[in-house]
C-alpha cells in the first residue's frame, strides 16, 4: 500500500500541463530551470512507462533497446524556501553520472543568457557625420548635362526609365544649388502619383511632390517625372535614404492604384554618394 501511495503522487504531477513546448528553443532551458517540478513530473512519467513495459508478460525480458528499467534520476524536491527536502528514491540502482564533457555542456546551458531581446532597425534621424571620402574619389561616378545638373552616371534620364535619385546643379564656380529628389515613372497605365511613401528599414517616410510633368509615348506608354527641392524638413528622409539597408517606394495615385518598387543596392549607394559629394562641395540642406 505504501508503494501505491508513493506512485500516486508522481502520477498526478505527470499530468501537469506544459506551456513551454511552443516557446523558441533558445529560451526553453531557462523556463525549465524556473520550473524544475515539470522535469520531475516528466521523468516520473517516463519511469512508470518503463515499469509498465517490463511488467508486460509478452515482452522480451532481454530487450535492451529501451532505457534500462529504473535508471531515471529524479530531481530533488525543494521546499517553498528553496532548500532540498530529504526524500526516498523510487529506485535503488546507482545514480547515473555525466562525463566531464556532458557536465560542461550542461553548465554552459545553465549559464546562458535566456532573456528575450529585441532586434531590428531604428527610425533614422539626421546626423551631421563627417564625409568618409573625398571629392576626387567621388567625381568619376558622376556626370552633368547641359542644364548643369550633377547626378550619378548610373542614372538614365530617359523618359522610358523608372528611376529614383538625388540631383543638384553646379554654377560656374562649382557651388552646388539645392539638393533635389527626382522620380521617373513609365508604364502602360497612367498613374498621376501625388505622394511618395518611402519605407526604409521598416519605417515610413512620406513625401509630397509638387505638380509634375507627365505625357504619353508611342506604344501606349505613359511617363511622369517629379523634381522637387529638398528642404530642412526632409533631412531625416535624405539621411535615411543614404544610410539604408533596404528601401521600398510606393507611388500613391489619385486614380486609386499604386505602384511599388524595391530600390536596388546600386540606387541606395547612389543616394549616399550624391549626398556625400553635395556636402563636400559645400551644399547644405
Word description of this protein:
It is a single chain. The protein is built from seven helices and ten strands. It has about 280 residues and is of the alpha+beta class. Strand 7 and strand 8 form a beta hairpin. It starts with a helix and ends in a 5-residue tail after the last helix. Residues about 1-15, about 65-70 and about 85-95 have low confidence and may be disordered. It has a six-stranded antiparallel β-sheet. Helix 6 crosses helix 7 (about 265-280). It has helices at about 1-15, 30-35, 35-55, 100-110, 135-140, 235-240, 265-280, and strands at about 140-145, 150, 165-170, 180-185, 195-200, 205, 215, 220-230, 245-255, 260. It is elongated.
Please render the helix and strand layout as text.
Layout: H1 2-14, H2 28-34, H3 36-54, H4 100-110, H5 135-138, E1 142-144, E2 149-152, E3 163-169, E4 180-187, E5 193-200, E6 203-207, E7 213-217, E8 221-229, H6 235-242, E9 247-253, E10 258-262, H7 265-280
Antiparallel strand pairs: 1-2, 2-3, 3-4, 4-8, 5-6, 5-9, 7-8, 9-10
Helix pairs in contact: 1-3, 6-7
